[in-house]
Structures are given as C-alpha cells and as structure tokens.
Write a structure and sequence with these properties.
The complex is a heterodimer.
Chain A: E1 3-10, H1 15-28, E2 33-36, E3 47-54, E4 67-72, H2 75-81, E5 85-94, H3 103-111, E6 115-119, H4 121-127, H5 134-142, H6 152-162, H7 165-185
Parallel strand pairs in A: 1-4, 4-5, 5-6
Antiparallel strand pairs in A: 1-3, 2-3
Helix pairs in contact in A: 1-6, 4-5, 5-7, 6-7
Chain B: E1 3-7, H1 8-18, E2 23-26, H2 35-46, E3 51-54, H3 58-70, E4 75-80, H4 81-86, H5 88-97, E5 103-108, H6 122-129, E6 133-134, H7 139-156, E7 160-162, H8 166-169, E8 171-176, H9 193-196, H10 200-222, E9 228-229, E10 241-247, H11 249-262, E11 268-270, E12 273-275, H12 279-287, E13 289-295, H13 301-305, E14 312-313, H14 328-341, H15 355-361, H16 377-388, E15 393-395, H17 418-432, E16 439-444, H18 445-461, E17 467-472, H19 501-507, E18 512-516, H20 521-536, E19 543-548, H21 557-561, E20 566-568, H22 577-581, E21 587-590, E22 595-598, E23 618-620, H23 626-634
Parallel strand pairs in B: 2-3, 2-4, 4-5, 5-7, 6-7, 10-11, 10-13, 13-14, 15-16, 16-17, 17-19, 18-19
Antiparallel strand pairs in B: 1-8, 6-12, 9-11, 20-23, 21-22
Helix pairs in contact in B: 1-2, 1-7, 3-5, 11-14, 16-20, 17-18
Classes of the chains: A alpha/beta, B alpha/beta.
Chain lengths: ~190, ~650
C-alpha cells in the first residue's frame, strides 16, 4: 500500500537520517520510494521538513491535507506542519504526552478523525545517555502504530544496514524502548 | 540488479560514472554541490582514474572540461544556475566550436528560489546559447539522461546541458545501478585552427554548422523516448480532447499525481528534450486538444517555443503563477479551476478543511530564520565591524556570511565577488560629491578566489578607498566544506599547491594587509581602526583585513583546545543588547525571569558573547589561569607582510 510520510523537526535532530532509514527499509522490501529533502540556506538552524512517498508516485512533494503520516521530532514543528495530515491519518509527536496538543488543535484532529500518538522520545534517548537517539526512539514508537507501513523487524534490519556498527547497539536500545512505549500505550489499561 | 536509495545528485553522479566520464569539474553551489563528491566516492570505490577538481569558478570549470573534451575525453562540468552566468562566455563559444569527446554541462535550477539570487531558467539560457537541453523529472530519469547526453553530445559534436531542478537534485529515490562504460578514450588533440582558434570568418561557418546540427537534433527528438504521451489517454476514445497537458521536469510528476487524485483521464505530453523542442510532436498534440495547459519550471521555455499559443494556458497568460515553484499546493487550485472550466470535474469536491488555519494560528510558533551558527567567526567579525564602523555602508557577498544581515552588517548582496565592486562604485559615487564615505566590503575566502581578485585589482588600479574584510574560514562552508585554492587539499583528498590569499591580495597591489583572528575582538577592532585610518590617509588606498578563523562546523579544534564556558549573571537586566547586536542562537531570553539564558544544548563554548554584554553580565564560568591565558594569546599570530 502506498504511503505518504512527512517528517518534521529542527536541524540537528536527525530528520534526514530517519528519512533515509525509512526509505532504505521500504526499498529492501521491494517497494519504490521518492522523497524531498531540505538543504542549503534553509538548513542552517532552521525547520527541517522531508517528504517521503513509499509507492510508485514519482512526485517528490506531499500536498497539504494528503499525508498519511506525520512524524514530528519537535512539537512546534508538528504544529507548523499539521495542515499536511489527511483525514484519518496518524500524527506521531516527540513531546511530553501531557502537554500536547493544545485544546483547539485537539478538537480539529478529532473532527478529522486523525489518530494522535505522543511519546517523549527525548527522555528515552536521554536515559540511554545519547540525546541524538531520539529520532530512532520515535521511529520505534511509530512502528507499533496501527497501519504503519514498515514493520518493527524490517526497521531493525534497516538499522543494521544504515547505522555504523559501533552505534548499532545503542540505536537498537532506543528503537526497542520506543517500540515498548508504543506497545504499552496501547494496552487496555491505558485507554 | 542492485537497488540503492540516493539523492538526485548522487543518481546523476552514478549516471556520469556509468557513462565512463573521464574528467569532472565543478564549482560548488546549492543545489548542485553533491554531484562532484558523489563522483569522487564512486571513483574511489571502483578504483577509477577519473580526473576531478573543484575549480576556482564555473568559467574555469567549463573551460577545463571543454579542453578535455577537445582532447577526446568524456567530460562533465556541474554548477548551479547562476554559475552558468559566470560560465556563459565559454559556453556560447563552445556551442560554435563543438566538442570531440562528450561534454555534458549539468546546471541545477532553483525554482522557489531556495538558495539563490534569481529564479533564472537554464533552459532559456540553453536556447540563447543554442545548446541542447534535457530536463529530467526524477533522479532515475536524470541518471539515464546523463548517459544519453554523452551519446548525443558525441553524435552531433555539441555540448549538451542536463538541467535538473532542485526537486530532482535533492529528491531521494531508489535507482538501479547499471553497467559502467569502460571504453578507453586516449587523449588525442587534433589541430584544427579553423575550428579551435576560429576567426570571425570561420565563426560564421561554425554558426551555420551549429544551426544544421540543431535541425538534425530536433529531428532526433521528434521520436525520442524522452518525449512521450502518457498512455492513459488511450483509454478514452475521442477525436478531440477538451484539455491536454504539456509538461516537463518535476511539474510533470506533480501533474500525473494530481490527475490521479481528481480521477481525470486526459492526455499528457511529457517533454524531456526542451531545446530544440520537437515542434512537430508538440503541434500534433496541440491540434488534438481544445485547450493546452503547459507546466514547467522555473520559467516558460517550452511555452515560448510553441508557435501557436492561441489555446495555450500557462506561465505566460497567468493561468499558472509566473514566478515560484510549482508545488502540488500551488498547482492543485490551478488544476481545480481548469478541470472545472473544461467540465472534467464537478467543482463541489470538498476542499481542505478551512478550520485548520484558525486552529493553528492560535498557537505561537518559534520563528526559525537562517542564522549564523553558534561560534561562527563571521559573527565575531561582524560584531567588531559594527562597533568600529557605526555609520559605514556594508557591501557584502554570497556565502554563509550573507546572514550578517541579521547583525545589520550587510547592506548589499548582488552576485559572486560584487562586494568589492559595489564598494568601488559607492566610493566613486560619493567622491563625485566630494565626500569620503566610510565603506566596508566583506567577502568569503572561496568567493574572493572565485570572483574577488579581478574586482580588487580594478579597485586598487582606479584608486578606490575602502576597507575590505576577507572572511576566511578555511573552507567553502555554505555548500558543504569544499576546499578552496588557499588549501593544500584537492577535491579527492590528494595534495595540491596552496595559493595563499595574502599573496593574492598583495599581488593585486594592496599596500595595507593585516591578518587577524576575529575571536580576539580587541585586537581585531584595533586592526580595523588602523585599516580605516589608512583609507583616509593622504597616501592611503584600499585596506585589506583577513579575518582568519576556521568554520566552527568544519574545524572545532581551536575551540576544543580552549573551551570557554560562559554564564549569565543574576545582574542581567534583560536589555536585549546581546540578542540584537550579537544574535547568537545560543542566547535566549527567558520571558518569565526577563533575563538572558544560555542554551547549552547548542552553545559551543566559544566565549565570544562575553564581549557582547558591555555591562559585563555574561562571564566565563571558570576563568582561565594566567599561563592558560598566555597560551591563548600566543595562538593569535599576526602576519604582517
């Protein structure tokens, strides 16, 4: 099934790495990918958005209101890009769950039947002693969300291909911790 | 069949390697900068003997590649679209002389623009230069087009331009790695003065020859598989279609996707060979449609070549916005209107929920404009320049340091090298009125070598007076740390000869030259004052100060050797002077305490902001000892020729 995934964050959070990991994972499963990245002047300390389409569309950009997924590595960048989500899509945000989202946005997401999944990936990464692993923790969390186009196992395999060996164990830990948070949050007791 | 997910520019590089390119030259510039490094990566991986260089500018790059082609090698030169302005002189002449080995000129356009001073269309440039141009829609297509471009170039002995737009260069897609051409192409320059050194009389013959070549190339393009009518039209049986689309580049892919979204089946003619336009193919297509929508970026190269535009909708008649990128968000309303007008859709299709705008507007979002990095030496230089020259005009240039606008230390930015010539012109304008206006020009190291030397020679020769600060950070930082001629390191890591900037400055006739580290702000400001005094003295002229401090992203070793942890004292009165005048991303205002705070997540411990609080409320957390201080002062080596 074709998927349109929008990744949003701030320069330095590893948005492009997350994009590459997802793309590599999809291609390993025999799928085609096309996407767009932010480079150059707009990259210096600014908002970073990348568009990823899994499937046969050769057009790199996602139109507003048509993204199946938004993976936001920062809450303000999630707000900035929320208009990309389609009705019935899923938004995954790296933030403290109790503080996201604002009241008005929450109502709108409900009206559009958008699933919102919030995880404090920064804390996961901090506990592992490497703040920069938050992106991988968020991907682990996302992999447990209903309908995510890439499986947990396939993403772990992609990590093994893309990450340098000395950092692989740490990335596995971050990924698994994110995935665990995702599974836990879906247990009946939490609903 | 090995699949690999690559950036568009890496797909182009792979295409170059597959075509067996022998000589590859480039000057970095977004969105083209990743092409040469990817060629180098393949060269190393496969053990190829490809010659690669980061040339000092695009004109040089094109000429080096062209001469290699005359010797029979396959050559490529890559640049951004405004780089072609610099390389236009050899390009136009090379169209007449022709080539021997294939010569592919890769020019990346920047519809938007995102990282450029213009949205110029290289395809229009190609028409002007009478050089064939191919317009890929995707990285995959760009990879294949490179191989075809070499064949075309060799078959008709003309340079060929490949024009990827930014959304091709910086798209990421999976490609298939194809076979590599390993045909040997020995260097064999054959003397032919009537061609390679043609006088005007022969130039007329070469012009006629070029026109003949273009006619033959157009004929080849009429049946080229790079131009195709989308098969979906065959599912609808009609004599005449209410609407047809002619599209090239990225807008072609967007158009396909939008038609699918709207569920409309109309024919699309995809054009991959924009010039010479296969006019018969286009005319036949136009004749079969009542209206034609033309979609292309960034300007109207196809539309302008269409002989009959009576039924054509596009950039020229305003149906499509006449500036900016044709993103799906821009094209969606255009499609909706045209498809409705052509009665192909019912306009009652639901729009994007408009409540979003209001819901999101209520949330205050941090603005994230591009800024100089924490610890950037340019910031320290600009801060000192502002202190020493409160009423000067600041002529600046192209690079990271254009962001000095944030520190109000950049008043002009025109094109590569123009800081020096703008300062010259401003000086002469004020001199006519008998005024000696304070002027400071700032230019980066790579930009100075690219286009500053001629302007400086001119300024010295004509007696202009201003202070020129060369912001030397040891690299071409903005585009990804390519080496400049001032370094020993060559493009592929091999050792070259250093052409030192101070020697170049002296050779331009400059009599006042100082090298100073802007991190040592008191010393640096004293040097700036001396420089200004020189420009105003009887025997004075142009004073050059080389502000030498390595890019903090490229080489952090000087900071790591002497990190200076800073803190803001409780006395901070929230005056915001440091935020405005120093403008470091690591300085933040805490609105609840009304005090400035340090964002230690991004602070690099450069200690430069200590000078940015004139009240002394930003201090070093652990002051250094006397001996450490002596060591620090010791590394501030001045070079006085």
């Amino acid at each position: 099934m074709d998927s349109k995934i929008l990744l949003a964050g701030i320069g330095g959070q590893g948005v492009l790495f997350a994009h590459q990991l997802l793309a590599d994972c999809a291609v390993a499963q025999g799928l085609n990918v096309t996407g767009a990245e932010t480079h150059g002047m707009s990259q210096r300390g600014g908002s970073v958005v990348s568009h990823l389409k899994i499937g046969d569309s050769p057009a790199p950009l996602i139109r507003q209101g048509t993204a199946d997924w938004i993976l936001a590595f920062d809450a303000s960048e999630a707000y900035r890009n929320l208009s990309f989500i389609r009705p019935g899509g899923t938004v995954v945000v790296n933030h403290a769950p109790e503080n996201f989202p604002s009241e008005t946005v929450s109502q709108q997401l409900n009206r559009m039947n958008v699933a919102l999944r919030v995880v404090d990936a920064d804390s996961i990464a901090k506990n592992l002693g490497r703040v920069s692993a938050a992106n991988v923790a968020l991907l682990g969390f996302a992999s447990t969300c209903a309908g995510f186009p890439l499986t947990r196992e396939a993403l772990r395999d992609a990590l093994a291909r893309v990450v340098r060996p000395q950092f692989l164990e740490l990335n596995y830990q971050a990924f698994d911790e994110g995935a665990l948070k995702g599974t836990m949050s879906q247990l009946p007791i939490n609903q | 069949m090995t699949q690999q997910v690559v950036l568009g520019n890496e797909a182009i590089a792979r295409g170059l390697i597959e075509a067996g390119v022998n000589v590859a030259t480039s000057y970095p510039g977004t969105p083209s900068s990743e092409i040469l490094p990817a060629v180098i990566e393949w060269k190393k991986k496969l053990g190829l003997d490809t010659y690669v260089e980061w040339s000092v500018n695009e004109k040089v790059a094109l000429e080096v590649a062209l001469a290699a082609s005359w010797a029979g090698k396959r050559a490529m030169v890559a640049m951004k679209q405004v780089g072609l302005n610099v390389a236009s002189d050899p390009l136009l002449s090379a169209a007449y002389t022709g080539v021997v080995g294939g010569l592919v000129v890769i020019v990346c356009d920047d519809p938007g623009p995102f990282s450029s001073q213009t949205e110029q269309d290289t395809r229009l440039f190609a028409i002007f230069a009478k050089v064939p141009v191919l317009d890929p829609s995707t990285p995959r297509e760009a990879q294949a087009m490179v191989r075809y471009a070499f064949e075309l170039s060799e078959k008709f002995r003309v340079p060929v331009i490949l024009r990827p737009a930014m959304r091709v260069s910086h798209a990421r897609q999976n490609i298939t790695l194809e076979e590599i051409d390993k045909t040997p192409r020995p260097a064999k320059f054959k003397k032919d003065p009537a061609r390679w050194a043609a006088t005007p009389r022969y130039r007329l013959l070469l012009h006629k020859e070029l026109n003949e070549k273009l006619g033959k190339i157009e004929a080849e393009f009429e049946t080229s598989k790079l131009n195709s009518v989308d098969s979906r039209q065959s599912t609808v049986d009609r004599n005449k279609y209410p609407l047809g689309i002619v599209a090239s580049g990225v807008p072609y892919t967007t158009a396909c996707e939008l038609l699918e979204e709207f569920g409309v089946e109309i024919p699309i003619l995809k054009i991959g060979t924009v010039y010479p336009l296969p006019r018969k193919l286009v005319n036949d297509f136009v004749a079969r449609c009542e209206k034609i929508l033309v979609l292309e970026e960034p300007d109207a190269a196809i539309e302008l070549q269409m002989p009959d535009r009576r039924n054509v909708l596009g950039r020229l008649d305003g149906t499509v916005p006449n500036a900016g990128e044709l993103s799906p968000d821009v094209l969606h309303p255009v499609f909706k209107k045209i498809l409705t007008d052509a009665k192909l859709i019912d306009a009652s299709q639901p729009a994007l929920d408009p409540v979003w705008g209001e819901a999101l507007k209520s949330i205050p979002l941090p603005v994230r404009p591009p800024r100089l990095c924490p610890g950037c030496g340019h910031r320290s230089a600009y801060y000192s320049i502002r202190r020493v020259f409160p009423s000067a005009f600041f002529a600046s240039d192209i690079g990271c340091y254009t962001l000095g606008t944030n520190l109000r230390a950049v008043d002009t930015c025109l094109d590569m090298g123009a800081s020096i010539t703008m300062a010259t012109g401003l000086y002469q304008a004020y001199k006519l009125d008998g005024k000696n206006q304070s002027l400071v020009a700032t230019i980066g190291d790579s930009t100075f070598i690219h286009s500053g030397i001629t302007g400086l020679t001119n300024a010295v020769h004509t007696g202009a007076r201003f202070v020129l600060v060369i912001l030397d950070n040891n690299t071409t930082a903005m585009t990804g740390f390519q080496p400049t001629a001032d370094q020993m390191r060559l493009a592929d890591g091999a050792e070259g000869s250093r052409v030192a900037i101070p020697e170049l400055v002296s050779a331009c006739g400059v009599k006042f030259l100082r090298v100073s580290d802007p991190y040592f702000q008191d010393d640096f400001q004293a040097v700036l004052k001396d420089a200004e005094a020189y420009t105003k003295s009887d025997e004075g002229g142009i004073a050059v100060v080389i502000a030498k401090r390595p890019c903090v992203l490229y080489d952090r070793s000087p900071i790591d050797a002497h990190p200076i942890k800073v803190q803001v004292t409780d006395e901070c009165d929230g005056c915001k002077y440091c935020l405005v005048a120093f403008e470091c991303p690591a300085l933040l205002m805490n609105p609840s305490t009304n005090k400035v705070e340090i964002d230690y997540r991004i602070c690099v411990d450069c200690g430069q902001c200590i000078d940015a609080c004139y009240k002394g409320f930003i201090v070093e957390s652990n002051p250094v000892t006397i001996s450490e201080l002596a060591e620090k002062v010791g590394i501030n080596q001045r070079l006085v020729p």
